[in-house]
Amino acid sequence: MNLGGFSYENGELFVEALSVSKIADAVPTPFYCYSASSIRNAYNLLRQKLASSRTSICFAVKANSNISVLRLLSELGSGMDIVSGGELERALAAGVEPSKIVFSGVGKTRAEISRALEVGIHQINVESPAELDAISDTARSLGRRAPIVFRVNPDVDARTHAKISTGKKGDKFGIAIDEIPGLYAKAVTSPELDVAGLAVHIGSQLLDLAPYRAAYERLASLTTKLRSHGHQVRRLDLGGGLGISYHFGAGPDLTEYAKIIEETFADLNCELTVEPGRWLVGPAGILVSEVLYVKNTGNMATAIVDAAMNDLMRPSLYGAVHPVLPARNVNKDASSAYQLVGPVCETSDVFGTYDALPELRSGDRVAFGCAGAYGASMASTYNSRDLVAEVLIDGDHFRIIRRRQTIGDLLALEAATPWQALRSCSDAKTAM
Fold this sequence. Notes:
Elements: E1 6-9, E2 12-15, E3 18-19, H1 20-26, E4 31-35, H2 36-49, E5 55-60, H3 67-76, E6 79-82, H4 85-93, E7 101-103, H5 110-119, E8 123-126, H6 129-142, E9 146-153, E10 175-176, H7 180-187, E11 193-200, H8 210-228, E12 235-237, H9 254-265, E13 271-274, H10 278-281, E14 285-297, E15 300-305, H11 314-318, E16 324-326, E17 336-341, E18 350-357, E19 365-368, E20 389-394, E21 397-402, H12 407-413, H13 425-431
Parallel strand pairs: 4-20, 5-6, 5-13, 6-7, 7-8, 8-9, 9-10, 9-11, 11-12, 12-13, 15-17
Antiparallel strand pairs: 1-2, 2-3, 4-14, 14-15, 14-19, 16-19, 17-18, 20-21
Helix pairs in contact: 2-3, 5-6, 8-9
């Protein structure tokens, strides 16, 4: 098992050069913990594999939107793929150049579009004819020219979880491939639009590379068709979705992934971009938790930990199972089976059943692995629980990169404001 930036030394779990137990002595559980070296190594490996095709990388911010993580990736050269105005502000706060930001997502508001154009982002990915009109209107009102690409729905099954498939006919994402030529021809006549090319994204957590080839071939064919009609196609946004093994094993073959890109697009002479998220940060993170109680439920030993579904949503939302690493695993020969559950008042608050754990007692600590993506970014305060803290490790140093949001913080947001009266329609008419 390749644990990346995590290892055992004398039965103690380490993140880089620091013991998880020692970190947990300083930072109350539960908390997320990220390995900076793991993120750097992943980014540099992907950049190396894509070098021959000159494909640029934009990190999918939704996977992990912590400003320190974004800054780390930006310093390595990564751009950012955002899906909301809030993610735009996070990227800017992390020091990302606006010219390296791509705006995806099916429901951009006019306010978000306006802000994106004002700061000068790289491109907006258009996902519907109505959105095209909104972008055009907004750009015209600002006296700006909006750089756009059209997101194509290629009707390709990504063979991933149904809830994270985005490229099939009937999914809410993108524009049907046969509608693109007409919209492209319309858009290039608008002086407020800079029509740069096309985009595609077929889903998340892809382990099988065949769907990429199918989608990319359709994108390349569409590019050739548009050019035959006299249109320029300068950019192709190839989306993300590279999956990881949730047991620290090998994921997709990056050499083959790069080969598919090069074979499909080498002759088109387009700017190419990919937008990985999970693959860059997922294996770099753990969620550290403490055992509260152990009891028997039926024929199963159940360990109740202080992390819950509000902290790590993936098991209850997707049926995902994250590996569990004991903070101390001195007696490796003694193993027991446990169901690990959280304290939230929902039957679905279950992390999974694990067959090879040491005996667990109150006060023991465990770490849920491969939790660097879609962990903290999806966390909530359900059951009025504190929003989890985040910690970054770099060598033998650590820092808290997001403090825990306490119940006091939450209550302060709910302080009552003065009552306000709104005029009725009749009052308004009388006043006029």
